[in-house]
């Protein structure tokens, strides 16, 4: 029976594939289109708001898509770092002995975790950056203005990048905070008691005894949040940041090559997700070896 059911499932899957491919072929013939990636060498003829490599509208579509991919990697990498730092701090705050710190961490998590990410991106972009007008707000080492975030050494981040970066990092940090809290709770209380019996302060006990053991429980779900953050970065188009999806959308609108452009987007995000999963799995194996 298991063999029969598996054969039936395989036949159904094959039938669905044939149906979709036949439908796609018919639509392409009706539009007089032949699948192929030759259009990538054509002139893009559209500008991109910001790029970390040189780009001109006279260059090809593949160059434009490369700019979008690098912009995506830039905001994903920066958001992963900031989300991890904030999530770790808030997660420890959720476990703090101080009542006020614990309640503030609880409010932070519950409000931001249960608010749609798209709404938070709009808040950062329209209410924080664009509403600044000609004024600028001094926040210690950096300034907020309509031009974005100005960091020391004359480094300026655009309002589109800043809104996406802060939105992704803060939203994801709430989930990371809960993962950290759960990881700390998974460590037996005897570990705390043993460390205190040796005279270790609570902060030292947390960093040198509890956190290393909690990482065994933290890293696997942390990887899932990293993957979610990478995929959520495609919401960049909502605030006008030229990430891979935004540039690919413009490419599709100009060329009509929906199949090829969507295939490139899927391949890019799939590759990125597999890389993140591989790194997280490597770190997980390392922590397992250290713990033994």
Automatic annotation (TrEMBL):
GO terms for molecular function: transmembrane transporter activity. Keywords: Amino-acid transport, Cell membrane, Membrane, Transmembrane, Transmembrane helix, Transport. NCBIfam families: HEQRo_perm_3TM (TIGR01726). This is ABC transporter permease subunit. One of its GO terms (biological process) is amino acid transport. Belongs to the binding-protein-dependent transport system permease family. HisMQ subfamily. InterPro entries: AA_ABC_transptr_permease_3TM, ArtM/GltK/GlnP/TcyL/YhdX-like, MetI-like, MetI-like_sf. It is found in: Cell membrane. Residues 69-280 form the ABC transmembrane type-1 domain. It is a multi-pass membrane protein. Signal peptide: none annotated. It comes from the Bacteria. One of its GO terms (cellular component) is ATP-binding cassette (ABC) transporter complex. It holds the Pfam family BPD_transp_1. The chain crosses the membrane at residues 6-24, 36-55, 75-96, 153-177, 198-219, 261-283. The lineage of its organism: Bacteria, Bacillati, Cyanobacteriota, Cyanophyceae, Acaryochloridales.
């Amino acid at each position: 029976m298991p063999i029969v059911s598996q054969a039936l499932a395989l036949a159904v899957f094959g039938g669905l594939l044939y149906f979709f491919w036949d439908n796609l072929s018919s639509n392409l013939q009706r539009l007089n289109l032949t699948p192929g990636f030759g259009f990538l060498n054509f002139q893009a003829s559209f500008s991109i708001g910001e790029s970390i490599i040189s780009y001109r509208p006279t260059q090809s579509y593949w160059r434009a898509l490369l700019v979008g991919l690098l912009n995506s990697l830039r905001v994903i990498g920066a958001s992963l770092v900031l989300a991890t730092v904030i999530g770790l701090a808030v997660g420890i705050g959720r476990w703090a002995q101080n009542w006020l710190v614990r309640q503030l961490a609880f409010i932070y998590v519950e409000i931001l975790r249960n608010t749609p990410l798209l709404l938070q991106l709009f808040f950062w972009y329209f209410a924080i950056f664009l509403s600044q007008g000609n004024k600028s707000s001094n926040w210690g080492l950096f300034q907020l203005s309509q031009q974005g975030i100005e960091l020391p050494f004359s480094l300026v981040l655009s309002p589109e990048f800043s809104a996406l970066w802060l939105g992704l990092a803060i939203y994801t940090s709430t989930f990371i905070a809960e993962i950290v809290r759960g990881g700390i709770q998974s460590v037996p209380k005897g570990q705390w008691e043993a460390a205190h019996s040796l005279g270790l302060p609570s902060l030292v006990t947390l960093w040198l005894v509890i956190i290393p053991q909690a990482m065994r429980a933290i890293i696997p779900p942390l990887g899932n949040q990293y993957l979610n953050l990478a995929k959520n970065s495609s919401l960049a188009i909502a605030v006008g940041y030229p990430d891979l999806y935004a540039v690919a959308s413009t490419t599709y609108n100009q060329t009509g090559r929906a199949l090829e452009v969507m295939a490139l987007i899927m391949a890019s995000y799939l590759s990125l997700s597999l890389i993140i999963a591989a790194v997280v799995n490597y770190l997980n194996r390392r922590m397992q070896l250290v713990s033994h």
